[in-house]
Amino acid sequence: SFIRNAGTYDYPIVEAIRSILPVCDEVVVAVGASEDGTEDLVRSIDPRVRVLRTTWDDTLREGGRVLAEETNKALDAV
Fold first, then answer.
1. pLDDT of amino acid 16
2. Which of 2, 18, 22, 47 places its Cα 20 to 30 Å from the Cα of 39?
3. Number of domains, the chain
């Protein structure tokens, strides 16, 4: 999965990750540079959550390409 600025945008990342943990040995989350404590929040969810620090390429925002790139970063880390 991927996330950036979860607190700023009130995204339910904790609930989303906890909902899949029962069926996962590990969850990899690509966490984009955030200023709202998103990385610390994700790290605190469960020891099975592995954080991958990333930098979003905002030039790829059109058409959601940046979201695809962040997904690929997380998948490549598996």
1. 96
2. 22
3. 1
